Every structure is written in C-alpha cells, then in structure tokens.
User: Fold these one by one.
Assistant:
Number 1:
Amino acid sequence: MVNVKFLQNILEKHEHHFKKGGKFEKLYPLWEAQETILFTQTKGAPGAPHVRDSLDAKRLMTVVIVALLPALFFGAYNTGLQNALAAGETTSQIGPLLISGFITILPIIIVSYAAGGFWEVLFSVVRKHEINEGFLVTGILFPLILPASIPLWQVAVGISFGVVIGKEVFGGTGMNILNPALTARAFLYFSYPVQISGDKVWTTVDGFSGATPLATAAQTSSGGNAMDSLAQAGVTLSDLFYGFVPGSIGETSALAILIGAALLLITGIASWRIMLSVAVGAIITSVGFNQLAGDNLPGILSLDWKYQMTMGGLLFGAVFMATDPVTGCRTNTGKYIYGFLIGMLTILVRLWNPAYPEGAMLAILFMNVFAPLIDHYVVEANIKRRLSRVQV
Amino acid sequence: MATYHIKKGYTIPMKGLPEKNKASIGSPKILGICPTDFRGIKPKLTVKLNDEVKIGSPLFFDKKNPEVQFVSPGCGRISDIIYGPRRKLLDIAITLSEEEDAVDFSSFTDKGIGDASASELKEVLLKSGLWPFLRQRPYNTIAQPEDAPKSVFVNCMDTAPLANDPAFSLMGKEDAFALGIEVLKVLAGDKIHVVTAPEGKAVFDKAKGVHVHEFKGKHPAGLVGTHISKIDPINKGEVVWVINARDLILIGEFFETGKFPTKRVIAVAGNGTKTQQYVEVRAGVKLGDLLEDNLQNGPQRIISGNPLTGVEKSQDSFLSVYDSSVTVLPEPTEKHFLGWCLPGFNRPSFGKSFFSRLIPGKTFAFDTNINGGARAMVQSGLFEGVVALDVMPEFLIKAILAGDIELMEKLGILECDEEDFALCAYVSPSKMEISSIIRDGLELMEKDG
C-alpha cells in the first residue's frame, strides 16, 4: 500500500479553513468532494443500524464510468478513423487513429466536465450539500452522444442547460424527472439542428458528407429494401456491430456498448429488466413492421431488427440512459413496461417520422416523463391487494 | 405445521459471533432499568432517590396506561435517577443490598392457571411487571390490556447478525415455555402462532394446542413482522400481539415461582470485544460490569441489542429489558486512500460491485463506518431485495418523508416496524437513515392517523 500519510497530514492541516468559521467556509462542498475522493471517511453511523454496506454513491458512479470506457475508447478510435477516411488518409494503424480521435474528442469532454461541473459546484455551495457524483456520469455521457464536430460552445451551452434545467431546478441528483444528458442533447438538437444532424457533422473534415446508416436507411424509397440501400452505401451488419460507421462519438459500436452492459449487469448496478425489455420492445416492433413493409409504405419498414438494434443510439440509450435509476421506473413491474415502450417508441419514430432519423433520445425522454405514471399504477395494484384482504 | 421459505434478505457477514458456551460474571453491586427502552410510554416515577425497593417493586408506570407497571430487577436502594434533556427519564440505578428480597405472588400462582380467568391473569401480569413483555403490532408498543388481539405470535428464532441463538440460550426451559403458552391461551384464546427456525425446535416442542410454523431463510426471515405478513397480515383496525420466546419463558417462570425472574442468558458479540460468548447475568446488568476486561483497545461502540436494531449505550447504562445480546463494534478510525475505486476484496457488500463477492462465506471485521456520504434516493431495486413484507419500500419511504398519512396507511405502514427496514438502511448507497424514517412515520401515524 502506498504511504499517503503525508497527504492525509496536509488535508488535516488545512481542513479548518473550510469548516464553519474558516476563511473558505462557503467552499466546504468542494473541500468535502476532494477529501472524500482521496480518502474514505471515518464517520460513524448516527444510529441503528450500526453497520453499513460498503456500497456508496461514489462506487456506483465509478462502475458506470468504467462501463462507459470501452465506448469512449472505441469512440476515439472511430472518430480518428472517420476523419482519416474523409480526408483520404491511411487507416491501417490503430495508434495514430486513436490519438487523432482523442485530440478531437478530449476538448469536448473537458468542456462538458468544466461547464457541467461549474453548475454542479455552484448549486452545491448555494444549497450547502455535498457535490453529487452523478454529474461525473452526466459529464461523460453527454459527449458520447454528440457528433465529433460539435462546436465547443454548444457543448458548454448544452451541458449547462442539461444540468440546470434538466436536474438542478428539480433539486439535484435524485430529484430530476428527465435524464440530464439527454435533456442537454435534445436542447442542442432543437436549437442548433445544423450542427447535430444531417450528413456533414460526423467528421471534423470540412464539408465532407457522410450519412449515418440510419439516415441512409431512412432514405430508402417506398417499397425498396433498406438493407440493399445500406449495402449500396457500403454498410454491413458487421460494420454496425463493431462500429466502423459515422455517428455520435460513443454510440456506433454495439460491441463496446455490450461490454459496458455486461459490467453493469455483473455488478448489478443497472437494471437488467430495463435493458432486456427495451430490446424486446424494439425487436418485436421492428419484426412486426417487417411484415407490413410493402409498395406504398416507406422502404425503411423492411429494415431487419438486427440492423435496428446495432444502429444509432438505441443500444447506447438502452444500456446507459434508460437504466438511469433516477429517471426510470422504480417498480420492477414498471421497469418492464417502461423498457418495452422505449424500444417500441424508438422504432416507431425511426420508421414513421422522416424528420427524425433517430428515435432513441426522444423515446427515452418521453418515457422518463411517463415513468412516474407507470409506477403509480403498479403501486395502486399493491394498495388494492392490501384492501382486498379486508373483504376476504 | 407449515414451512415458509423467505427468499429475500441478507446475512451480513460479520465477524464476532458468540461462542456457544455459557460464562457467568460475579454478583453485581448495581442494576438498573432504562425507561427509554419502552417505546411510546410516558414514564411517571413512583419511587424517589434512596427509597428501598424489592425485586418486583414498581418503579414507574405509564401515564397513558397507568395500570402498566415497570418493576425493579433488584432489591436495594435507588441510588441514582438520571435525566436527559427536557427532564427525560433515562436511567434508574439500584444499589443492591446483601440479602435480596422479592415481591411474592405465590399465593396466586400456586393455585395454577387452570381456573384463572383472563382478567385475573392480566391483573397479576400487570402488577408483577411482566405485562410489558407482551407487545403489539402495529406500532410495536406495549400491548393494551383491554385489546382483544386477532392472534398472538411467539417468535422463537432470531436471524439478525450476531444474534443470541434461542435454541442455545433457552435450552432447559421447555416447561416454562409450555406454561407461558398456557397463560397466553387464557389471555387470547387459541389463535396462537409459534414460529421457529428449522433447527433447534426442541425447546419449544412442549407447547400444545398452538399453530406451529417454521421459517427458513436469511434475515429478515426471523422477524416477527415477516411472520405476521406471511401468516396473518394486519389490516386496518386489527391488533396482533407479539412476544419473544425468551420473554414468554419469563412469564412461565413467574408462574412457577411467584417471583419476578431475574436471570437472563445474553450473547456478548462483535469484534470490539476480546471474547464473544454467552453470559448468564441478572436482568438490568450494568454494561460496564458485563464488558469488564473484555473490550478491545481503541474507541468502541457499545450496543444493547444486535447491530441492526440495537441502541448505543454507555458503559454506565444498563442492558435493555427486551434485549438478549450486547454487541461491541469499533468506531471507525482508519482512512483509506482512494477507497472507492479499490477492488474491495475486504469490503463486504449486499451489492455485487466489490470483489469480496468472489469469496463466498468469508466474514469481515465490521466497524460502525457509514461508508459514504448522504445522497438523495438514487439507486432503485435494492430495498426490494431485503424487505420480506408485501410493501413497496421506496414508495412508503417517500410517503413518510412527504408526511402523507393517508398514503402511508394505504402503502401498508401499519404492517411495518423499523426493524423490518433495518436492512434497507444497511444497504442504502445513499446512506439514508431509513430505520428512523420508518419510526418517524409510525409515530406520525399513531399521533394523527
């Protein structure tokens, strides 16, 4: 074990400045945050139970961030890859692509953390509560659902909107109705559509047009076969699965997302009920519409469910966004319904709304709003069961 | 006999389980009683400092139910009466005399209970100070003598971590237990449920004419709240009486001897002690006497009761009337560098995000560290795994926090006690004080509901 006594001594020496009556009393949440990040604390349980589990909010959020790392690293690589393809450069070496990708996306992540963190700390100081780790997740989730070419000022504006309007106005982490990262993205999507959708945003090479697979599929003519359109554009199912396609930074690789999903499921941090039911909802809906596909209907209806699952933001949303414990359903029965409807709505938006090629973001935000209603009816069932006992 | 298998729950893998051997400590010089052990009463003293009392002499009564008397566990002089803030009565200490004398009810008990009426038995239980051992649900307060309970639950098991094992500590008390059951039958008719664990039923076998049930599983399989909800759930307006087997045995012993029983076998547990074992003590033993020369170095927390529901007490205070164990746990002193991101082979958890899960069966030296900072209720689905009642824990907790009495009742608070939710507070990653939230809800309910 590293000897870190000297660090502990430094902390103890300066702590009084941040305690009540100290010079920087107001900044106590900041002090507390760095202190609890460095060392576990020695606070005893205030009452029964006198022992407490080792799991805390920091551990929870750490696991989520680790689960996001495969998507982040692959996103960096793919960003480098798509840029190199657009510029007609060589794509054989992984290292330089990864580095060039990180050079593109690191500023986005830094701006997201800095701007989001500013608001988080400000609200903690004003409200005198501890800084919530939840923002560490939001701050990395948000860049991963943006195109690599996003202007940095939009990153700052978007995350500010997400954190303040999406979360803090409701009282902070745990009280919010909408997923803050998705709120931020939806805000950018409707305010600055030019920089976040269309064919020109997926690489940082000026003027290069590279449609996402979803957009390609959506342009299939009536009665056509969407898989053929994709094949013509050079997109194979294995490309989609591994993620060598244009798209938002963290969303393209189904494989990287599934590795993260496995970690979340093994540790029990995210709900398997939600992940499973999103997939079931999406698959049933797309298979159903496959049967309908015909001459007079949009060609994208013919798109196979395997393509639907690996394309766009659906898988990323199912694993990292729909499972947000705060904004999702909290009852087990509710989780099935909530997840199923997210999957179904995502496919419905993709198939029937030509204005939005991607439906996952809207479907999850929509179901965030309805989650309390679903829970309400599940709870009512428990209440009815209790009342029915009396009559028996 | 019916067997119930409780699938939910968690056995906290704590070190410090008491060894199954009975020790004894020297005769005490001082005994005491803490009126705060009795939930919901308003104690009114009937003795003054320096009064002489016998074993079984009344010390105070409940102003709300004046017939409920609380009696002295020893014979001697009232040597100290300790008040807390707002003159709350905390401790009454009795310095024992050389020769001890007890209030004698044998003129009544010698006749046997065969012909006694329920009201006669109630009267003698109230006068002898044994009535408070009968408790009721909802609210987990002392039973109201005038109530007619719909059933009585006798709990003969304990699944709490480091708990006193009744199959061991009550060995040899078969007859007293059977006699206690006979008393209950007169008081409450034939709806008596005796609940045991799969092992160690021998002590409770002699009880006749009762419904016997067996509960298997992890904690909270041994909580009476779990038993009631599976066997005979409480509806609005109904009352169920509950009593622990060890306390029912005291009632049996009283009817054997005519005197207030003063012997208890308690478990001394927890890795804050040097030796963990069962000790035979007098009721109301001073914790300092009990733990003399047995504490580990460093700051320790002394808990009357088990780690989940016990009460922190000082060495000068006394064993709670209802408790059958004393747990000592070290207070946290060590800070760990970057503790939240280490693999955590040494960090036990109900969840699955620490590597300690790879070593099943391993026990850990716990301290009282809260292990994190307070947050809003974030994670969902954990509470459902540790509450064995048919309630929705998160929604009930939220209703209580909102003070919504109507909703609390609909969500089943009357079936709950804080002990049923102690594991929720244990597992909560947001470090919410769920036990005390449930207690607040019950108090609000009792006052305004």
Number 2:
Amino acid sequence: METEETGFAVAPRAIALGLLVAGLAAVPTARALEPFDPLEPVNRVVFGLNELVDVMLLGPVAEAYGELPSPVRTGVRNVLDNLSAPVTFVNDLLQGETDRAGTTFARFFINSTLGLFGLFDLAGELGHPAHKEDFGQTLAVWGVGEGPFLMLPLLGPSTLRDTAGLSVDQLLIDPWTAVAGDELRAARAGSEAVDTRHRLDPVIRDVRRNSLDPYATVRSAYVQRRAAEIRNRRPATGDPRYESIFREEEE
Amino acid sequence: MTARTERGGWAALARRRLAGFVVATVAVGLAGGGPARAEPSAPAARFVDGLGQKVLAVLRDGRLDRAARLERLARLIDEATDLALVARLVLGRYWREASEAQRRDFVALFRALILKTMAERLDEYGGETYEIVGVQPVDERDSIVSTRILRQGGTPIAVDWRVRAEGGRLLLIDIVAEGVSLVVTQRSEVAEIAGRSGIDGVLAEMRRRLDRPA
C-alpha cells in the first residue's frame, strides 16, 4: 500500500513541487541578512501555537526523555542519523560533492552492519564524522534563493525553499518513505522531534530568558544557520551581507 | 520554538548551543584546556588564545568566589571587546536616529545584559576545552579566528571570533557560533522592536529583561 502511495500518487505532487521549485528561483533573497518575512503576522501566530505545544507537550516529553541514560539517548540519535544517511547521500551527489557522498555511503554501510542498524556510530569513531545535507541545501547550491521565511506548524522555522526541499526529501528521495509503514514513520518523526527538542533545550531556555524578541531571534538564527550549512561550515567571511555590517560605521 | 522533526537548522543548533548572547561563551565556552593548535604567527590567533587562557585561569582559580569570578570576567570582557562598537552595530540603522542620551543608555544596557547572561551561564561550565583551527584575514583591519570548542561526549562547536585592529591593539567585535553571529542576531531582535516601538521601546524592553530575575 505504501509502495503504491509513493509510486503513483506522488507523481502529480512531484510535478507540483517541480513548478514550485522553478518558481522559487525568481524569489528575492534577504538583504543585509535581514530575513525576508512578508508573512510575519501569520508566522508569529504559528510561532505562538508552536510555543504552546512545546510548553504543554513536547517540552515535558523531551524532559522525561532527558532522564534516560545517556548511552540510550546516544543510540537513539545514532539510529536517527543513520536513517537520514540516504537523503544526505543523494543530496551530496546532487551538489556534486562526490567525496562527501563517499563518506556518507561508507558511514551508512559501516554503521548499518557492524554498528548494529545504526545503534553505534562506529564510522565516526573510525574518523569519518557525520554531516547532513538536504534538498533545501541542494536548491541553494543550485542558486535558488531562500524565499520568504515561514514558521511551519509543529515543524518550526523554515523558508519557502527549505519547505519545498523538505517535501522533495520526504516524498521523492527518502527510501524509508516507500519502505516503512505509517507507524514506523510516525515513530521516527516522533523520536526525531523529542530528541531534537531535548538537545535544543539549553538554546531554547536561553532564547526564552534572554532574547528581546524570541521570534526574531529564532528567525535570524535559522536563516544564518542554514547559510552556514550551505557553506558547509566555512566562515562567513566574504559573504557581502555579513561584511557590510562591519563597514557601515564608515558610511 | 518547536523542534523541527527533520534535520535542519535547529537540530544542528542543539549540540552547539547557539548562544543568543554568545559573549557568555567568552566566559564559559572558551574556557577550556590548552591551546591545542594555535598558530603563533598570527596576532589575532594569539589574541584569542590569550583571552581564552585568561578566562580559563579565572574559571579554574579555586580561591575566587562567585562574585570575584564575575568581576574578573567582566573586566576581561571590557578589556578585550569593543563593546561600544558592538552595541552600535547591533543598533544598526537606528544608531543614526538615536539621541546622545539614547546611545549612552543603549550601550550601558547592552553591557549590563551581557554581564547578566554571563552570570547566569557561569555554572554551566563543564570542563570544555578548545583548539584554534585557523585564522583568516578579512580586510586590513579585521580577521576571523576559527576555534572549536570540544566537549566530552559531544560534537565540537565551531566558534569564529571576529577581531579588529584598532589604534594598535586588537579587540573582539563579533562571535559566530556555528554560523550564528551575535551581532547579526541581536541586530535582528533590535530592528524588530525598534520598527514597532522605536528606540525607546528597545531601551524599555532591555530594562525589563535586566530587571527580571534569572
């Protein structure tokens, strides 16, 4: 059933996504690192709802999860990271990063076998550290602008480009979408949400406590962080949007 | 700020503790073990390493009580950072509109909030170490020193320090944790509030934050 779903029903969606992606290329990009946020009023409402869900449900669950022994949590994280390897691999290739694709492939192979279905990050121990790529980053490498900032219900900060990328990853690239049933996919998404929320806890506390405007902080941090991921962590020197800030007192 | 369920910015931020106000990282993050791979040739790298060592010495000095420790860290920040410039860049285009009094208030509140954040973070230091991985000149004044904060059982955090040569000395003017810049992030927060309620609105919000118990 799942196979049918992904094999056929996806085709029209893929076409729609293709059009969306093509449209994205024409979208303006943020200037001077100020996020382009024409939907801010709606985004702020969604942010408020997400905060509510976080306080009522996700936060407490993540706190309980934090009580589990650390090796258990590491195992969960490792399995989740290993499951995301195919998406990273395909996007490495789409970005022309063949060396990184090789690393991703080797990691997946080693960790899925000797690492007991990804429970242990053996490849990491052997000196092949993990990295992640997704179709949003691939689109960026292809020159697609980030488009308007979006605050997605439950999923949190994104941009039009990254939302399109996420859909392509999930519907077209991720092999588990075709293989796994609804329950497994829900379990994976749930674990991912809880584990991510747990690891973000210090940051979230910090933002809630210290930010002058938490929504603006999250938006700015998301956009910057994505830019850094697209550069594959190289410093922002040379990014004219970043550099202009440090020259403006001369104006 | 609900977590994204799929890979992405937030997931990555987790390990790396973005630091809304990363200057606290001067106190907590940089404080670590030895300078593993400093490049002694570059003055900017030596400057960041020297700062890291001083911070480390303060954090590890068992004779200091909490208050003395905070006082010394505050002095280090004042000596090593061009806080007036950082504050001015954070206020961005509103700096030009601000009156003398507003500018003075903003710089003072900005410093006070950084020190408050640092005080709140002081107890989070958990034996992190650091290494300097490189230094890159930006222009005739600025360079970026790249470091890695190493934590036991955690992924290293990439932190870049932007250092400016001013009047024969070096001063810290931005900290970028995993691609997230202190100046850019706070500038965005300030612009948001200033756009709604002006510079006085920003100052009022800063005072509110300052008065709030930790």
